[in-house]
Amino acid sequence: QTIAGEHGLDGDGHYNGTSDLQLERLNVYFTHASGDKYVPRAVLVDLEPGTMDAVRAGPFGKLFRPDNFVFGQSGAGNNWAKGHYTEGAELVDQVIDVVRREAEACDCLQGFQITHSLGGGTGAGMGTLLISKIREEFPDRMMATFSVVP
């Protein structure tokens, strides 16, 4: 929501900004889709669908590409090992496929910004697994993590 606002986008992905600089730098975080709409270069991941439903129902839910929501059905029960070795391991290849698709659509991929929790199964367990897989797949790209402490 903050990044969309800083780039002059509304909740539907339409540009309403006033600055040429905003328009010039819009493609750093967003892809120009059909019509006059922009969609975030974002992949949203969780091991259970409830959080994704909340994002979709929110004021910026229509902004995201539906294919970029990747979620499991069972969750990890706030258990790091389940997020890293079992539930997360089953989902990580699907997530990497979506990340790869987004990366291939970039003109000049600079790196990744990852926001995740340091507690629980998805953010900590699957988060560390995903970071290591992205590092394997894109070893020469920058990675910045924004890690939330519970």
TrEMBL record:
- What's the chief localization of this chain? cytoplasm
- Keyword field: Cytoplasm, Cytoskeleton, GTP-binding, Microtubule, Nucleotide-binding
Q: Which PROSITE patterns match?
A: TUBULIN
Indicate the quaternary assembly. Answer: Dimer of alpha and beta chains. A typical microtubule is a hollow water-filled tube with an outer diameter of 25 nm and an inner diameter of 15 nM. Alpha-beta heterodimers associate head-to-tail to form protofilaments running lengthwise along the microtubule wall with the beta-tubulin subunit facing the microtubule plus end conferring a structural polarity. Microtubules usually have 13 protofilaments but different protofilament numbers can be found in some organisms and specialized cells.
Domain Tubulin/FtsZ GTPase positions: 26-150
Per the entry, what this protein does is: Tubulin is the major constituent of microtubules, a cylinder consisting of laterally associated linear protofilaments composed of alpha- and beta-tubulin heterodimers. Microtubules grow by the addition of GTP-tubulin dimers to the microtubule end, where a stabilizing cap forms. Below the cap, tubulin dimers are in GDP-bound state, owing to GTPase activity of alpha-tubulin.
Q: What does the UniProt entry say about where the protein is found?
A: Cytoplasm, Cytoskeleton
Q: Name one GO biological process term.
A: microtubule-based process
Protein name (record): Tubulin beta chain
Which family would the database say this protein is a member of?
A: Belongs to the tubulin family.
Q: Which organism is it from?
A: Penicillium soli
A molecular-function term among this protein's GO annotations: GTP binding
